[in-house]
Amino acid sequence: EISFAGETVRTLAGNGMKGSDYEGGRKGMSQVLNSPWDVCLDSSSGIVYIAMAGQHQIWKHNIMDGITRAFSGDGYERNLNGSNSRNTSFSQPSGISLSSDMQELFVADSESSSIRVVNLKTGGSRLLAGGDPLFADNLFQFGDRDGTGTEAQFQHPLGVLCGSNGLVYIADSYNHKIKVLDPVTRKVSTLVGTGNAGFKDGVAQLAQ
């Protein structure tokens, strides 16, 4: 936890050692973590959601009591969507962002090259775009294609952000693009980038 006003840093969870715990439930630094890659805060509930890439799970930290525990995902590396947290699997979830209504959590599931959404009440998930909708263990359904739902393709997306307009912005990392997803229609389109790595400003479709 970083205080910009006080210029201080305080550890909420983890002790610097790589963990292998798939359940959690410990307090503060006594709860070990495994490669947390992203966090986002629900300020209304005091819950910090964690993209636990190393465990292929989504975890949550309660600011009030200091407890950190697994929230969604069984820990198996695959793209499996289910009605609750126990029959849902992720594949290196790397970026997360709360929906504008604070009811869902968008996930950049990098190894399955897909964008998924988690129900914050049940812990279950559904596939929004990319990935393989039929075979959960197929982590090689990637590419660079705009489209709707699973017709769209990403390659190892690492970041995701839900804007105030309800649209979801995606860092499609290995395609060197920023893409935008409408979670209602599931339509994906390229917003910025040519598909080639570079460092060049300019109009959106020509920038690199």
UniProtKB/TrEMBL annotation:
PANTHER family: NHL REPEAT-CONTAINING PROTEIN 2 (PTHR46388). SUPFAM superfamilies: YWTD domain (SSF63825). This is NHL repeat-containing protein. It comes from Taxus chinensis. NHL repeats lie at residues 153-184. The keyword Nucleotidyltransferase does not apply. It holds the Pfam family NHL. It comes from the Eukaryota. The keyword Hydrolase does not apply. PROSITE patterns: NHL. InterPro entries: 6-blade_b-propeller_TolB-like, NHL_repeat. Keywords: Repeat.
